[in-house]
Prior knowledge:
Number of domains of chain A: 1
Order of helices and strands of chain A: HHHHHHHHH
CATH topology of the domain at 1-78 and 197-248 in chain B: Rossmann fold
CATH superfamily of the domain at 1-78 and 197-248 in chain B: P-loop containing nucleotide triphosphate hydrolases
Largest interface: A-B, 14 and 24 residues
Shape of chain A: elongated
Order of helices and strands of chain B: EEEHEEHEHHHHEHEHEEH
Largest sheet of chain B: 6 strands, mixed
Number of strands of chain B: 10
Largest sheet of chain A: none
Helix content of chain A: over 70%
Strand content of chain B: 15-25%
Structural class of chain A: mainly alpha
Strand order of the largest sheet of chain B: 6-7-8-3-9-10
Number of strands of chain A: 0
Helix content of chain B: 25-40%
Distance between the termini of chain A: 48 Å
CATH class of the domain at 1-78 and 197-248 in chain B: Alpha Beta
Distance between the termini of chain B: 54 Å
Strand content of chain A: under 5%
Oligomer: heterodimer
Amino acid sequence: MNFLASIGAVFLNGLAASGRMALFTLSALSHCARPPIYLRLILRQMIDIGYYSLPVVGLTALFTGMVLALQTYTGFSSFAAESAVPTVVVLSVTRELGPVIAGLMVAGRIGAAIAAELGTMRVTDQIDALTTLSTNPFKYLVVPRVLAGTITLPILVFIADIIGVFGGFMVGSYKLRFNASAYIQRTADFLQTNDVTAGLVKAGVFGFVVALMGCYFGYNSKGGAQGVGAATTYAVVSASILILLLDYVLTALLFVGR
Amino acid sequence: MSAPKIVVRGVRKAFGRKVVLDGLDLEIGVGESVVVIGGSGTGKSVLAKCIIGLMQADGGSVKIDGGEMVGRSTSERERVMRKFGMLFQGAALFDSLPVWENVAFGLIQGRNVERAAAKKTALEKLAQVGLGPEVGELRPSELSGGMQKRVALARAICVEPEIIIFDEPTTGLDPIMADVINDLIIKCVRQLGATAMSITHDMVSARKIADRIAMIHKGRIIWSGRTAEIDHSGNAYVEQFIHGRGEGPIQMEVRAF
């Protein structure tokens, strides 16, 4: 009986948490659509999320493209399909690896930072102080981060796509001895605009999720330093899981379903 | 006699099974400075947050200038909240902003005052609490605890509120700095003609800044009177608290693990 009660309690807690998160998301979306919009804060967040994440995302994309070219070559050469390497690299990077890897890196870097910052503001009464100074903390803290995440990640992923494909090209032409112009030709032949735009749509959703999870767990954190630490962990873990889950859903909708 | 500025009637607030405010009553007149004293965990901060609107009471009534706060929508409460200024226990300064912008925050974000004009006002308020313009350019993390409290006081008075709430204004400060803060509170409240409610367990501070003192215990006000009357309250709880005795009717809850 106790066992059943435990399962029931976990289930109910899970439902309650999902409900709170859904309400937070709806509130974030409704505040995004209503003035005032703090453009200066959105710009600052875009610089934090985009510009300062560029080195880590760029490096990750570069090595991902390089490794992908190597792995594809070693696998495909066993049945004489080496010529498919440029196509596999460009489609994998633009459709899948670019958005997912950039999303995960940004979740680790930005999701954690947002949760820690808002969590510290919560436990030191700074969020309450905003309210007493006639400023809606949701509009001032959550909306700029969520909007910046949604706008910036596609830009970041577009750059990561270029760097990732370039990494594959470098390995292909310098190490695997592909003809450089033939590599580029094959890359361009099979790449369609929709491959890139679908990847950017994924990136927008992932940016929204990363910022939202950081804000949700930071905004609702309690219990001092330990609470802030827990909020940071939850933000990164939940954003990472949601990225992988939504990646499947979006792939099914954008590629398989059309 | 004018109507009270703040009227609290039968306010209840519980967190799960823990009842923090249990039908609390309190009145604060216009321009009056009331200090609520009480031990840690007796509900002082929760009372302040229910009055200012940061927390919704579960029941009862909180009226500001006759207008009900309990059960009102967030936007209605936000409108009333513009009458308030608050000094938080830990100062609650925004780490990401320089000191002057912390002080001017309510003017820039809440009242749409131009940044240049708001900065000028902020520097005047900093001067009012004894801080020079050079402090305005520093970050809150570069200030001592006493300076942070002074900046927080400047921020609380910058929008010239009708009501100011002081949450443990002298906690964590040395006696001299605590006295400086007490003097500043008295000066600022008098200059603004504001109504003040302070919550503290520092009796030196309470005696200095209060016109009237109220003691909270187990979620209710158990004694209230003029500051001069507190030494002859005839209330065993008040006697124990103001003399800081371990023996008496107030039993500290110590749980053995």
